[in-house]
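ugh ok so i messed up the first submission bc i forgot one of the chains. this is the corrected input, ALL of the components this time, i swear. 860 residues overall. if the numbers dont match what u have on ur side tell me asap before i send this to the collaborators (the ones from the other lab, u know who)
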Amino acid sequence: MTLLLSTQKLSKNFDGLQAVSDVNFDLPKGQIRALIGPNGAGKTTFVSMLCGRIRQSSGKVSFEGKDISDLAAHVRINLGMAYTFQITSVFASLSVWENVALAARRASLTSNVEKVVMDSLEKVGIAGKTAQAAGDLSYGHQRLLEIAMGIAQSPLLLILDEPTQGLTDLEIANFIELVRSLSASTTILLIEHNMSVVMQVAELITVFDFGKILAEGTPDQIRANAEVQAAYLGTSNA
Amino acid sequence: MSDLRKSLCLHVGLLAILFVLQFILPAYHHGNLARIMVLAAYAVGYNILFGYTGLLSLGHALFFATGMYGMGLLINQFGAQPASALIGGLFAGALISFFLGLIALRTEGVAFMIVTLMFAQAGYLLILYFGAYTRGDEGFVIQQAERMLWNINLSNPTIRYFAALFVFSISMLATLRLVHTPFGRVLIAIRENEERAQMLGYDVFRHKLAAVVLSGTIAAMSGAAYGLLFGYVGASFASVQYSIFPLLWVLLGGAGTVLGPFVGTLFMFYLIDLSSGITSAYMLIAGITLVLLTLFAPQGLVGELRRRVFRWLP
Amino acid sequence: MEFGPYLMLATLEGAVTAAVLSLTAVGLSLVFGVMRVVNVAHGEFFMLGAILAWWVTSLIGGHPALGFGVAILCVPVLVGVVAVATDVLILKKINYDPERTIVATIGILYIIQQITLMSYGPDARPIEAPFNTRLALPWIEFSGGQPQLYWPWGLSTTTYKIGVIAAASVVLTGVWLVMVRTRLGLVMRATQLDREMAMAFGIPVERVYALVFGFGAALAALAAVLIVPIQQAHYLMGGDPLLLAFIVVIIGGLGSLPGTVFAAILIGVSDGIISVFFSPTLAKILATLLVALVLVFKPNGLFGARRA
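and heres the new structure output, hopefully the right one now
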């Protein structure tokens, strides 16, 4: 089991608010990992430090065995990470096609871009909307667009931040299929509040609370964990 | 006809019309159009940074003047040939824009606007301060005898017109090409959502710096050309007014469109030309236009046209 | 005159500049701080103050103190009204978007400037100070081990200049008292700190904005009325005050009245000294580069509070 990503004592302090404290996290290659926890537990802050969107206050991040703690975000993305935003962040006035193309161009040869774009759009199920302005899509479709942009980069690590928010049940079912098919070539780290999705796709679950890892284990282990239940009472969406 | 072909026909068509106008226009408008074309090239350069990358500089006069004075001082003080002087002005512009970019791009939004404004002002004041070499506010004339490019007399109205058309054509065609390249698309992405562009793996700083240098170099080229073609180098071209003008032209014509800068420059030139016949306070028109534009038509003429009718306009 | 007395003279002149500058800068800082917008036309409100002061004093005639007294009371109010109009008609409509506001205020700058050119003309015209006696100032010289006062020729100031410094100090203290001791000041500071919360508390933010914008312009106009008897009224006189006010606000830090005043004194006096000993152009070059570099390397100003 080779490690794709690992962190050592990773912490983030926002002017007195300790958002993430001394987290040691290991992600093996090819795994589908879910990150769950109550609101404000520090999940998004944590993954933002992984992809370089936020700089850590202290601690280290390693990717493929190399220390990337001091690398800028765009450099880390180029090493093979992709991140989809929790609060949808697409290019609203550009077309759906252009949105995915921008993602694809960086990682593929020019001649391949068209194919990669259509492929990604088809996989998430919005291939019919290429000419529409991204901002005109429904909220759920914009989230699918985000995922398509992530896939188009053919990343080694795909970080999905609450991807099923706003999706219909059918779209969620498609999403679960998609994740399973992707895991052959991509390691997936998934922040989710939808427990049903988590239980169906995750191989391993990491539970965050108050900026620390509360528990880590298989879906069954986590389901049975009393502490996790206590932390989550009333906030899950099973 | 595909969008690409439509747009190529339109832009090449414009150049063809401008070419033909050479033979038709009466002397007064002929001279005006030559000036408009060179200034439109300046606007095109500005548009790359403002319209396509989304960075509002209030200090582009620095680049325009660098090109103009680079060219002018090389001829005046060092007796250089026009061809070398032009290249010198261009090179100076590229260098200045590179260093300005390195410093100013550490800021953004309002701070960026003020920083660029301040550096341009400092440039203007330096020109006045070193009046011994630059002749300060008065400026200096480039004699007809010196305006011979490889035995072609640039003071001849026809030659001058074609030279201006040439300068405008390369800048406009360069922009047209740029917006269809991956680099150009990234600039647009940066304008639309900078953080997203960064998180797709693009080095946003490098792209912005390249945009500043490209924009500044085109501005310098038009400044050098303007000085050489119309035979005068003066400090007024380094003043705040000449930083506001390209913003005004691009806003009026349509920021982020290829034709916008030309349309805006043409319109504004004649608006000011007409009003300066009535009053010496012709900049009033510039002020009113700016206010009306920000209030009612931030997209500009070509921009509104693109939004409502011709969606394929680049 | 020797160096010592010369320096003192330059400092005194600088103090007058600083007094007027602090009023102008506080006006700009209030607008910047509460509304978060850059008003590039601030210098034109200053100029308008000077021009209107000339109009008023020429209309009234008689003893200079009479005309001046009327001017100092009405002109800031008049300019304030003009400013409120621009806020309501233009700035509110573009929703105080920072970039659009800068472009719009550039337009307003040209409109005010050019209309003045069309009506008042390109000439510079003076107005007479209400009181203006020359005061010779002493300098200390050591001769034979004993300090002695002597009055170098040329080292003098006028009662009016002292008056300007006094007036500015009084007004600034008043502004400070309003900001920290009155409910109005509290409302302004609340809006500055958190616009959304202020709205949630029922504070009529748009009215506060109009008031602040008008007040900022009125302060600039007041500064101009004070300086017009010393400097003449000219349609282009807004440029330098704008630049200097900018520097003061950026260096002094946002939202800090004491910081702004301190920076104004620093800048005003240095500008005076450099202009006298070197050249006004060089002073301006250094000033513009200083603003740029502070913005790039110390964006919160040298004294400003750190934003979370």
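quick check: Chain A touches chain C at residues 15 (CB under 8 Å). that seems consistent at least. The mean pLDDT of chain A is 90.
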